[in-house]
């Protein structure tokens, strides 16, 4: 299933709702702010402009006039995934800035779509003047030659970028990548309560067939907060379901440590 322009935005909204206990979040207020940006963009576009000219205008407004940007010094800050903070600071990650830009493109009926590129989110503009690729890091057009360099950086020298790597994203894959990024960011920053709530929401969405990666990540969070037996149950489930996954080796090692910890606690008590 191909994604629509609001797929990433909708998932970031779901993330905000999942951690709303820690930070106030009002979706109507968020839509109001984005609606104001949409109106400003529409007023800046001349009647009769083609799609390419309108896209050029939107990119100039978004990155130059309004000051949206990626801050490499705080790239992994969870606030870069929290939509109210992104609109307030005008700072985010490529995927979150891309989500906002795609939301505006959807409101303006502009043909911009996400691509599941291996290194980061890349956007694809489909116009009568041709297909153009946009780097949401800075809002500039990126050539196929540069995309080939990034592809080789991810997969090794000589790896060939194909046309299939540049088509509109598959919604399920796009959402899964964003969900994993959110989990990794929260866990890396030690925000265990927020991570647990978000992961629980993901598991509840697929309660009959939970994703093994979500069970694994819940186990990692449970281990961090000292719920060792529950963590062992989750991590054993993951190793059983995904024995060939590269991370299973590390998980097995962690399982042994957790079992030793549980044993020592039992002896102490």
UniProtKB/TrEMBL annotation:
Pfam families found in the cross-reference section: TPR_9, Transglut_core2
Top-level taxon: Bacteria
Ranges of residues in domain Protein SirB1 N-terminal: 31-179
Gene3D superfamilies in UniProt: Tetratricopeptide repeat domain
Entry's family note: Belongs to the UPF0162 family.
Name of this chain's protein: Transcriptional regulator
Species this protein is from: Haemophilus pittmaniae
Organism phylogeny: Bacteria, Pseudomonadati, Pseudomonadota, Gammaproteobacteria, Pasteurellales
